[in-house]
Write a structure and sequence with these properties.
The protein has helices spanning 8-20, 23-30, 34-48, 64-88, 102-108, 112-119, 132-140, 202-214, 227-235, 281-296, and strands at residues 53-56, 59-62, 94-100, 123-129, 146-150, 166-170, 175-178, 192-197, 218-224, 241-243, 253-254, 270-274. Strands 4-3-5-12-6 form a 5-stranded mixed β-sheet, with helices on both faces. It has a 3-stranded antiparallel β-sheet with strand order 10-7-11. A two-stranded antiparallel sheet has the order 1-2. The longest helix has 25 residues, at 64-88. It is of the alpha/beta class.
Length: 299
């Protein structure tokens, strides 16, 4: 029995169509006509030897075989694209000094940096995990090539920082974070216990301003110099903290809008800042990987 070889172009159209919810939109993404994508999907079903779609009202849904293929298709495309990048960038070399927030360290360091290292073995990355203020200071002093940080008011702290060197990636909402063991309730008559960093930050300012506008009393219940400390205190039910949904541990959760009577919080700008107006090729490549990873994950 001969082994089956799936066509990568067919798989790319398949994944795009499922993720975008429309094969017409998938056609735009892959640069083909809608009829060409339809033909690809028909041939993909022939290759699979099983139906991949079923009728669902006026639209289509995946069959069990289609669900199985979708997972493998994503992995095959990722490996295919990684190989293509590795061949194009085999001569890249040098050092990259990267700064990023704790929120992204756990996800980006093993995933994106691991993929980059495999594709560009001659490039060395020095990663520095810190808070916004320190990252911006290092950028201003030329100590970082690239930094991933929260935008908005914080960026203005660096005087005359050129707009040319910023790339906005997403605008995730701030969220109230707590655990199921949180004892505070709006009608308890007690101030809301807040868990914060031991120094003022953008999240703390936005949270306290929103509470003040809503007329909700609050108190600082726990401070920590690290994000891990915030998560531990929230998991223990000591109070509520504020972050985005990025990188939440399983011990805490983002509260639904209006839950516990807490006010809505604004969105933040997630930005990539460059240390030079014209980044070197390795820096450009790493930046592209970071942006793709965060946007695919709906940061």
């Amino acid at each position: 029995m001969s082994l089956l070889n799936f066509d990568i172009a067919f798989l790319r159209s398949y994944v795009a169509g499922v993720e975008l919810g429309s094969f017409a939109r998938a056609a735009d993404k892959v640069g083909r006509s809608t009829s060409a994508v339809s033909a690809q999907l028909k041939k993909l079903e022939e290759q699979a030897g099983l139906p991949l779609f079923r009728k669902d009202g006026r639209g289509l849904a995946l069959t069990p075989a289609g669900e199985v293929l979708l997972g493998y298709a994503r992995r095959l495309l990722e490996l295919n694209d990684e190989a293509a990048v590795a061949l194009r960038g085999v001569e890249l070399e040098g050092w990259i000094k990267l700064g990023l927030q704790e929120d992204f360290g756990e996800a980006l360091l093993p995933d994106v940096l691991g993929r980059f290292a495999r594709a560009h073995p001659k490039v060395r990355i020095e990663a520095h995990v810190a808070r916004n203020t320190e990252l911006m200071e290092r950028l201003a002093m030329g100590q970082l090539d690239l930094a991933l940080l929260w935008g908005g008011a914080c960026i203005a702290d660096v005087a005359d920082y050129p707009l040319l060197q910023r790339q906005r990636i997403a605008e995730p909402d701030m969220r109230w974070i707590a655990s199921s063991s949180l004892a505070w309730r709006p009608d308890s008559g007690e101030p809301l216990p807040l868990i914060t960093f031991d120094r003022e930050c953008l999240f703390q300012r936005c949270a306290t301003q929103a509470l003040d506008r809503a007329g909700i009393a609050w108190r600082t219940a726990f401070t920590s110099p690290s994000l891990a400390g915030l998560w531990a205190a929230a998991a223990a039910g000591l109070g509520v903290t504020v972050r985005t949904s990025q990188g939440l541990p399983s011990t805490v959760r983002a509260l639904d809008e209006g839950e516990a009577g807490l006010p809505a919080l604004p969105a933040l700008a997630l930005e990539l800042l460059y240390g030079a107006a014209t980044p070197r090729p390795p820096v450009e490549r790493l930046a592209a990987l970071i942006v793709a990873s965060l946007q695919d994950g709906d940061a």
